[in-house]
Amino acid sequence: MSKQKIAILGGGVSAMTSAFYLTQQQNWQEKYDITVYQQGWRLGGKGASGRNAALEHRIEEHGLHVWFGAYVNSFKTIEAVYDQLARDPNEPLATWQEAFKPHSFVVLQEYVNDEWDTWSIDFPEIPGNPAEGSLDFHFWEVVQFVYVWLKKFIDDLEDKGKQLNKSSKVAVAEDDDEGLLTHFYEQIKDKADDIRDDFAEFKDDLEDSLDHISDHIRLSSLQLGQFLQKRVDDKDLANTKHHSALAFLLRKMKKWLVDEFDDLLEEQDEIRRVYICVDLGLAILTGLLDDKVYDKGFGVLNQYDFRQWLLKSGANDKFSVHSAPVRGFYDLVFGYEEGNFDKPNVEAGVACLAMLRIMLCYRGGVMWKMQAGMGDTIFSPIYQLLSKQGVKFEFFHQVTDLLPGKDLLQQDCIESIQMVQQVTLKDDNKTYQPLVDVKGLDCWPSEPLLEQVVPEQAALITEHGINLEAFWTTWPAVYQAEFDHPLPVMSLQRGVDFDQVIFGISVGGLPHVAKQLLDIDEKLNMTSHKVQTVATQAFQLWLDLPLEGLGWTDIPDSGEEPILSGFSEPFDTWASMDQLICRETWTPELEPKNVAYFCSALPMTHYPPQSDSDFAKQCTLTVKDNAVFKLKHQMFELWPQIASEGEFDWQHLIDPANRIGEQRFDSQYWRANVDPSERYVLSVKGSSQFRLATDETCFNNLYLTGDWIKTGVNAGCVEAAVMAGMATSRAISGYPEQISGEHGFDPD
């Protein structure tokens, strides 16, 4: 039996994940011949990073990249990559545990009474390896997970209320015309002795509470926990009285919350924050019941925007629906149509499921910080492993078109793949060697290694400042003018160069490289139109003062530095990334004391034709202006030692050229992610229904992969991308059999 030739187009997370799992079965080389075709000089897609050799090999990213401790499939994959690569223990980042470190300190910015307040959250570390977690749970387990957090906040709020003479009584017995409390009590009456033993401190309330549902908020919440444990044990979704009784009690708790605490929210920061957590928890549980998620699955919620759904489910509009945690989630997923911060839009099912998983399923830290660039920690190891195993990589190959055809059975298929060969290597018999050594770590450079390119092309690229990754580029015209012929074109043919195609280019690229496919496949065409993307922006600073020297004072006992979101635009997210300094090659006199990363959505309503080569440059200038504005007019809220309103002390930016004043910013790093494949994939309401499974097009040899296809996440993130890659491998090879969380939107 001849090998199947698999052409993988693109080198992002999904594409590399599919290649990894295709090579995990024994003797895979006897079944498959795999070639990855990558534009430019490096892998990574939106997660690509580079080392700037001209500036101390500093790390330059597309944006801020951290992993959540609930990324079960991602950690499972990267753990296997590092284990199989088996680096020497003396090498830097020899294991995945060295490449990732748990992070627990998260900061949200609240805007209350026309002022910014800092809301710091130090999440508890949960023992365990995130690779061994699970994203699969029953409806009642979801409810129980939320309850555990909810009870903690209810107890905290009740304690704070006591100090202000607030009542702990819940009017549980009012309006119970259907006997729901009787049903509720019948489910838990055998647990009365447990309450007596555990809550003797409530003696006065206790004796009157054991033969019915307590009207004391702390006792009734304990009884709620006992009820939910029974439901987790029996998994009974058929008895509708369970749902009705639970919804009834939640409404009573909500009434207690409003009656006792609504008047304190403007002035009492601590009470407001606990209130928000309780209110959001009650709204989420109420919404899950009202919309019958237990019967219809989380997917039924995707007809609503998340804020719209929270409001419908009873959350306080001013303080909870528009709270820092909710705004922080929109910022996390760049959830703004066209980058317009007045048009927030995230599917409620996607948002709710993601937030629950992030909060309830993590292991180790709620987040994990990479200890070098994302390219260094993710894409270098996977490239090295796949290369060693026999996967071939063809860099500098830009896909320009996929052409359809018919196979012998007259079924639609991909007949040929058109590519431009961007450069000619000096030695046609050798493949491009993409990595550079930085302090013993194999890394991707921020520019191509032109010493491997024929000199006349290398000189031309340098002279004109050509970016070989760019969509809007003058390289074809420059090349034509110099050599009097166009860039070489390759045409890969089905049955000769490939049998199967893995399309690892992002959804934004479909209209540009697959137009004929869209004309044939209406479902794929709808995906292209309905699954939206958004441009993003990022900048990085290297400073000569430590975090405390900038004026940031909120340091937890762990000493962790903040990852902050929910702040003012144009950049709503900031993270202190000092762990990366040791991976760069600064001289002692220039070594930074702090590294700061910023990112946000980038407002963009129109993308011009590819021929408009100035567009990307103008976008980059816009990002620079936005960054300077951020530093001069907004960072005084966080860094008061080096910024005041309208002023920023530019001398604290590390600048090897030692420029003066604002010009020192020119030595920092900023970028606009506007190329079709760089833009972030959104989950606007109603769009999940237009996502396709990896093998759902009408073309029988085409497999889609990326965070834009149908997964159990349906959002732009590493975990969705990994799950997509796993699904692609399974569709071709049958492996892996299981993908944690892939049925997240389906009913139990």
Automatic annotation (TrEMBL):
Any Pfam family hit: NAD_binding_8
SUPFAM superfamilies documented for this protein: FAD/NAD(P)-binding domain
A molecular function GO annotation: oxidoreductase activity
UniProt name for this protein: Amine oxidase domain-containing protein
Family matches, as InterPro entries: FAD/NAD-bd_sf (IPR036188), Flavin_MAO (IPR050703)
